[in-house]
Amino acid sequence: MKRLGLAVTGVLLAALLTGCGGLLLLALAGLEVGNLYAQVRDFVGLEASDYTMVFDGYDLGINPNPNGTLDLRGLPSGTHLLSIVSEDERIGFHRVVDITSGSGLNLGQINLEIGAVISGRVERQVGSTVVPLAGVRVAAAYGGPGLLSAGAGAPLTFPPTEETPTVVMAFTDANGNYRLGPCQFGEWLVTAAYPGFLTDVTFCTVASGSSASGQNLLLKPATTSQPATIRGTVTREGGGALAHSLVNADLRTALAPLMDAARVSALSSQTGVTFMAEPWFRWRSLATVTTVAGAYDFEVPPGTMDVYALKYGYRAKTAEFTLGSAAVQVIDFALQPR
After folding, report:
1. Starting at the edge strand that comes first in sequence, how are the strands of the sheet with 137-142 ordered?
2. What is this structure's pTM?
């Protein structure tokens, strides 16, 4: 695999307290966040504007400056997947980092990699119809079927931790379509999860000069407890929708979706792999992206969680609450510009 040079000059992580607000009986509190500063030395024949920064699969909409500096403010503390990705998703890097307020982190020398793109569509079955699943996070893990073979050490964790194999993430668009990249050459496992539905998995292999399209996922209804629903809007203080904002729920108890037994059998026959017992995956957070009107609506498993809204250039806000089965919680975030 061809490797391309990238230098990162230092990362400073510091706490920035945000403003407070409120909705119903829930307090919107300041979110501890970190700052990341870096320098891109080599754009590999591309312009700085051809690259963007991606946070846990969410495109922050931030490009390096023409001189190579990258200044990201307001990233939440915790373990997250940071990526720099070219416009065509074929050049970049992915790194799991622990963002800790008030402490420093130096990523050192990083090499950009040329890889392939994995793409497809995520749908869910509703009654007798199949509909696209918009604004859901899709994850691809490097290693293919072997990641789930007996004795392999699953469940896999998404968003990834340092113990998780190489992972690439992205969100589906309004039509349920997704693109993941750059994905290093080799075997990959692709999956997505949504509360109240069984998960699905597809396997693919990419090599130099190739891509893997048509990696479609179909989520079928599960017979578990009914999920809760979170919905609302993200606006700037004083009015005005904040389109393409991230709304994320950090779950105290991870979602561990199961798969349809017939699908497991089909995948085992297809790959020749005897899979370990389920659950195979632990989703420690679920998220979605707001519409052009700043609206969001997604489902979460019952339980306690911290929900935050994030938009670059604004101070993030968070709310902690507990939801029961089939509960509906409306929570609007008004973010203050930095």
Report:
1. 167-171, 137-142, 186-192, 200-206
2. 0.87
